[in-house]
Write a structure and sequence with these properties.
single chain, mainly alpha
Length: 291
């Protein structure tokens, strides 16, 4: 079994906030793998040895190891530091919920969480355990492992709910992206977009919320949130596009006005030159008559 020495070393024990320390956050997974990736050590306990390799591929591992984002969980976050089990937690969902609190609150309202079946899905069934993947609406479609269709056929009531969620959330996300593009176009032509940015931020909050709230499996909640995103995003998009169109019209009108002024100036110049030439001819004719 692991001792203090295995994790902290012997004569050169460094502080946990020292990047050279074995227990520095981004070093913890590799340190744990020193034992847990050793097949010979794990064989007597029947413990898999691929946790570290899976973690490296996960969204958590990528954030921690490659991006040095210390908000991402390490082995110790879920399993504890000086204990081998998650302290204070009895269910996997509660471990995930220690960070993803809002999602856990929504999940606990769902039929999944309140099912009496031992096979009822928890976080790891859809998102993975060590190889946690980046969540997306694609999980609502298909029958691959971790997708809704792996448990619920498309023509079943739960399958139809998943399909509805896929359509509604994707539509809201697309509307939000289109509003962002329209807003950026308005910003580039020098329009003041502060109030619109505030509105769009509200839509972004609703979009983030609905992606957590879908864990309730409640169509009413998801429908209400996605409708809010669609309404705000469409309003922002229309106002931004009208602002760009108005700016374009003003620019075109200015070009026409400048062109008209230039034409007028040229015409006046030509007229003056013609008048000057005519005046010279008249003066020459008058001098000839005088001689």
């Amino acid at each position: 079994m692991a001792t203090c020495y295995d994790c902290h070393g012997g004569h050169q024990v460094l502080k946990a906030n020292d990047p050279a320390s074995t227990v520095y956050p981004s070093n913890v997974p590799k340190m744990c793998a020193g034992c847990h990736a050793d097949e010979a050590l794990m064989a007597p306990y029947g413990i898999p040895t691929d946790q570290f390799s899976l973690y490296q591929q996960s969204v958590h591992g990528h954030a921690l190891i490659e991006e040095q984002d210390f908000r991402s969980p390490t082995c110790a976050t879920c399993h504890g530091t000086h204990g081998a089990t998650p302290p204070g937690f009895e269910e996997v969902a509660n471990v995930c919920g220690s960070c993803h609190t809002a999602t856990q609150d929504y999940y606990l309202q769902s039929a999944h969480a309140n099912s009496e079946s031992e096979d009822a899905p928890e976080c790891v069934h859809c998102h993975g355990r060590y190889d946690v993947s980046m969540p997306s609406e694609a999980l609502f479609t298909g029958s691959e492992p971790r997708h809704c269709g792996s448990c619920h056929p498309p023509d079943s009531p739960p399958g139809q709910v998943a399909e509805a969620f896929y359509g509604e959330i994707n539509a809201a996300a697309k509307a939000y992206e289109e509003a962002e593009i329209a807003l950026e176009a308005a910003r580039k032509v020098g329009m003041l977009v502060g109030p619109l940015e505030v509105q769009l931020q509200e839509a972004n909050t609703d979009l983030i919320t609905v992606r957590a709230a879908q864990h309730t499996l409640d169509e009413a909640i998801v429908g209400e949130r996605t409708e809010a995103v669609l309404t705000i995003a469409e309003e922002v998009k229309v106002i931004a596009e009208e602002a760009v169109a108005a700016n374009l019209f003003r620019r075109q009108a200015m070009v026409i006005a400048v062109a008209a002024i230039i034409v007028t100036i040229v015409a006046l110049f030509l007229l003056k030159r013609e008048l000057d030439r005519q005046l010279e001819l008249d003066e020459a004719a008058e001098e000839s008559r005088a001689v």
